[in-house]
Design brief:
By secondary structure, the chain is an alpha/beta fold. It has one domain: Rossmann fold. The protein contains four helices and seven strands. The chain has a five-stranded mixed beta sheet with strand order 4-3-5-7-6, sandwiched between helices. A two-stranded antiparallel ribbon has the order 1-2. It is elongated, with a radius of gyration of 17 Å. The termini are far apart.
């Protein structure tokens, strides 16, 4: 994307909840890696709301070291809205109550931060759940 004669970049940051269980962080890293392989985003990263590193602020700092990174989309890897996606994360991102975007100065440049909705009931997720149920049923013959 070109803005005012300058190349601009966009980044995607996945936000995991965070957990004492190490496999949870591995799952979020794996999802970020899968998305990065698609080559749609200039940078794909991940962070955690609590308990794990990097934090949301640390991930933003790293992504925004690139002066051309002007748009950062953050996606909470949560099934549905709740206190974290409606209040906690927007507040951490400096968003006004009820807003899902903000302009923030990070590393000496204004950046557009956009908070996506959580996963929700996307039909693709429904297919995955249906498939997992079918596989469990097929494996159930070993009972």
């Amino acid at each position: 994307m070109v803005s005012g004669g300058h190349m601009t970049k966009k980044s995607l940051i996945l936000i995991g909840h965070g957990s004492k269980m190490p496999f949870m962080a591995k799952t979020i890293r794996g999802l970020a890696g899968n998305i990065a392989k698609k080559g749609v985003w200039d940078k794909v990263s991940y962070c955690f709301l609590q308990m794990n590193e990097p934090s949301i602020e640390s991930a933003l700092e790293v992504v925004c070291r690139d002066k051309e990174m002007v748009t950062v989309v953050l996606v909470p890897v949560f099934i549905s809205h709740g206190a974290h996606t409606l209040y906690d994360i927007p507040a951490m991102l400096g968003m006004e109550k009820g807003c899902r975007s903000s302009i923030r100065d990070l590393n000496g440049r204004e950046r557009a931060l956009i908070l996506a909705d959580p996963i929700g009931s996307d039909p693709l997720l429904s297919d995955i759940i249906d498939n997992l149920g079918t596989l469990a049923l097929e494996d159930g013959h070993n009972l």
